[in-house]
Amino acid sequence: QVQLVESGGGSVQSGGSLRLSCAASGYTYSSYFMGWFRQAPGKEREGVAAIDNDGWTTVADSVKGRFTISQDNAKNTVYLQMNSLKPEDTARYYCAVGRGWDNIFRLRRYAYGYWGQGTQVTVSS
Q1: CA 106 from centroid of its chain's CA atoms
Q2: Where are the alpha helices (DSSP H) in 28-113?
Q3: What is the DSSP string of 14-63?
Q4: What is the DSSP string of 49-61?
Q5: What gap in Å lies between CA 97 and CA 89, rounded to an integer?
Q6: For residue 100, what pLDDT is reported?
Q7: What pLDDT sits at residue 16?
Q8: What's residue 30's pLDDT?
């Protein structure tokens, strides 16, 4: 059974930084990718960044230059380093794992089959 557990969320002031972690277990795919999504109240869940097991990354334009996705394959953990945070980054952040989709699709919800429970990020002005 695939399990994804996010951590690292919290409350910060505008301009601050947070690093989210997602520990994954239970999947045995040889080819996969992992992504970070976020959902603010009343809004659609949107893709933030994705990385595959070869290290190829995709980052949404809204966070490019501020957020960085990385992974530690030995720990089965993916990270999202968030810098220069803005109030509009406030959302619940989810990690997910998927497979079988090209890079251009990896910020789409339908590319993912397993999701974590999420971790809340709140940025105050």
Answers
A1: 11
A2: none
A3: TT--EEEEEEEES---SS-EEEEEEE-TTS--EEEEEEETT--EEE-TTT
A4: EEEETT--EEE-T
A5: 22
A6: 87
A7: 98
A8: 75
